[in-house]
Design goal:
Helix content of chain B: over 70%
Strand content of chain A: 35-45%
Largest sheet of chain A: 6 strands, mixed
Order of helices and strands of chain A: EEEHEEEEHHHEHEHEEHHEEEEEEEEHEE
Number of strands of chain B: 0
CATH architecture of the largest domain in chain A: 3-Layer(aba) Sandwich
Strand order of the largest sheet of chain A: 7-8-9-3-10-11
Distance between the termini of chain A: 29 Å
Number of helices of chain A: 9
Shape of chain A: elongated
CATH superfamily of the largest domain in chain A: P-loop containing nucleotide triphosphate hydrolases
Helix content of chain A: 25-40%
Number of strands of chain A: 21
Radius of gyration of chain B: 22 Å
Largest sheet of chain B: none
CATH class of the largest domain in chain A: Alpha Beta
Distance between the termini of chain B: 13 Å
Oligomer: heterodimer
Shape of chain B: globular
């Protein structure tokens, strides 16, 4: 069990987060660049001293600023897979994996044997004598994982484990990584800025923005009920915030939406772009929510087009290329926007 | 690369520039007594100077490595007040006239010098006019080359490798030995070679601080200078030895200097 209360002030970054992770679950720390993800990892590993806070792993205190405790990085039972892997370029793959064992006083012969069996387990035994620069991205990642696991850590930290790979290799390596992560019994924390990676690898997401945790939950929960613009953009939905009462949501900005969800008070409202319809004239019929707008940004995504509509309630709609032509959207044409009340998901903020 | 037709004036001036460096070499080679070359090089004074230069320059390089690598590490890694001033002081010998360095060494470590006096009376150690003095003089002028080269290497290396080693359980000393040092080895090697070359050619500080005692402090450059008066052919051959060594270093380090820009 990892319990990390981490507060670090470093330059313009003001990081203050509390994250817990249990053995058996894989936690992904997801956030945009500069949110403080890597600093969190470095702080837990002991490479950056905490300004304030406390880190315990399986009831062992690694750091506690109140009691003046700071365990040096080399004394923490933590395996780290760094971004770019950072395999020592002057050592072979085998020597890289043996490094941690040698540093812990294991004899050379024993360390080489154990390193060899780790490379074997990760399926890169035939590259034992290769220098890192001769390895492909996927092989380097496995060697880096073997190196981190060889020291028998209680916590495994991975920093952007797939970012160094080209897109074509990513899928296969991600599947392998998931399998290898599953076989590790300790606490696992993956840091990433890629939502697909986070959703594919993790059981629980922790969303980090500007040094703060903005949302925690299962991938399904987080993607269905985003609580920040960042997550909403990642998932590709419209996120509105407002006050709800009796089926009406007063959105910040002045407009009011009707929804079918009976939640009152401060709420988030999520509208999928697919649920937003655009019309040349004011539509008649069932939609409860109708307003005027002007098409601004167009974003082609295969056979769909995402249209940013400006107006009293800015929103993104998803339409077909044919609709773009018919509605003169490319010329910034005026349109009517409609959303059925049943297409709006409302939940407490 | 774009090539263009140069103005005539530039070609003429550039040619004069080249001639300025090449003519002295031609003069040296033209006057070289090739028939007696081996005899001149194996005269007792030449052999003594060669051997002494070898010992002094290598000892100076070893001393510079011992003190210079940690110094470079401190400059690169430890921010402290006045670091720039201290670095400037230890770099000074690179541009200071060597004879001034020799005078300064004499007033520090000479028998009447500030520290020399203590060394002499307390420990009975006299440095000036000994081989140790020649080694100190050579180290004084040559070590800055090593320190600056190694510091540049330390600053340009990716420190995250050291972080990775720490998380694997390596103490700071082990990290330095097994990760930092191998990663900056090219810089250490280049710095050591430059340092050695500078020590080999050292003249001013040596003759001022250590004197010109054959077999004790008379290194190659000093021997060349003395032989010029009495046996010019020996001076020429010893000069050629230094020339070949310098050229060899330049070629060996061509990636660093000849193609540097």
């Amino acid at each position: 069990m990892l319990k990390a209360q981490v507060a670090v002030r470093l330059g313009t970054l003001d990081l203050d987060v509390t994250i817990e992770a249990a053995p058996g679950e894989i936690v992904a720390l997801l956030g945009p660049n500069g949110a403080g993800k890597t600093t969190f990892l470095r702080a837990v590993a002991g490479l950056v001293p905490l300004t304030r806070g406390r880190v315990t792993l399986d009831e062992v205190v690694l750091e506690d600023t109140a009691r003046g405790i700071h365990l040096a990085p080399e004394r923490r039972p933590i395996g780290v897979v760094f971004q770019d892997y950072l395999l020592f370029p002057h050592l072979s793959a085998l020597e890289n994996v043996a490094f941690g064992l040698r540093a812990r006083g294991v004899t050379a012969r024993e360390a080489r044997a154990r390193a060899g069996s780790w490379l074997d387990r990760l399926g890169v035994a035939e590259h034992a004598q290769s220098r890192p620069r001769a390895l492909s991205g996927g092989q380097a990642q496995r060697v880096a994982l073997a190196r981190a696991l060889a020291i028998d850590p209680r916590l495994l930290l991975l920093d952007e484990p797939l970012a160094a790979l080209d897109a074509s290799a990513r899928g296969d390596v991600r599947r392998d990584l998931k399998r290898h992560l599953a076989s590790f019994a300790g606490v696992r924390v993956v840091i990433t800025h890629d939502p697909l990676e986070a959703v594919a690898l993790a059981d629980r997401l922790v969303i980090l923005e500007r040094g703060r945790v903005v949302q925690t939950g299962s991938p399904t929960d987080v993607t269905q009920r985003p609580r920040s613009r960042y997550v909403a953009d990642l998932v590709g939905v419209n996120l509105l915030r407002g006050t709800a009462s009796a089926g009406h949501v007063a959105v910040s900005g002045g407009a009011t939406l009707q929804s079918a969800d009976g939640v009152d008070g401060e709420v988030f409202a999520v509208i999928h772009p697919r649920a937003v319809a655009l019309h040349r004239a004011r539509p008649e019929g069932s939609p409860r929510n109708v307003w005027r707008g002007r098409a601004s940004a167009l974003d082609f995504q295969g056979d769909r087009v995402r249209v940013g509509v400006e107006g009293e309630m800015p929103i993104v709609a998803e339409v077909t290329p044919a609709a773009v032509r018919e509605l003169d959207l490319a010329e910034g044409g005026e349109v009517w926007v409609s959303v059925k009340a049943t297409e709006i998901t409302v939940y407490p903020a | 690369m774009r090539s263009e037709r140069p103005p005539v004036l530039f070609v003429v001036l550039a040619a004069i520039g080249v001639a300025f460096f090449v003519l002295p070499l031609v003069g040296l080679l033209y006057r070289a007594p090739w028939e007696t070359a081996l005899d001149d090089l194996t005269t007792p004074e030449a052999l003594t100077a060669l051997r002494l230069s070898f010992v002094v320059s290598l000892a100076a390089t070893a001393l510079a490595l011992l003190l210079g690598v940690p110094l470079a590490w401190v400059y690169a890694r430890v921010p402290f007040r006045g670091r720039d001033v201290v670095r400037a002081l230890t770099t000074l010998p690179m541009i200071l006239p060597p004879v001034v360095g020799g005078v300064a060494l004499l007033f520090a470590f000479g028998r009447r010098g500030l520290f020399g006096q203590v060394l002499d009376t307390v420990f009975g150690i006299r440095i000036p006019f000994t081989t140790a003095g020649a080694i100190l003089a050579a180290t004084f002028v040559a070590m800055p080359f090593l320190v600056l080269t190694v510091e540049a290497g330390l600053r340009s290396m990716d420190r995250r490798y050291e972080d990775a080693a720490r998380t694997l359980g390596a103490s700071r000393w082990l990290v330095f030995r097994r990760v930092t040092l191998p990663l900056i080895a090219p810089s250490v090697f280049a710095g050591a070679v430059l340092c050695w070359a500078r020590a080999l050619g050292e003249f001013g500080a040596t003759i001022t601080f250590a004197g010109n005692l054959p077999g004790t402090t008379q290194t190659l450059p000093l021997a060349v200078y003395i032989a010029l008066e009495t046996r010019p052919e020996v001076a020429i051959m010893l000069s050629l030895v230094l020339l070949v060594v310098s050229l060899g270093i330049l070629i060996a380090m061509r990636d660093r200097y000849l193609r540097a820009f």
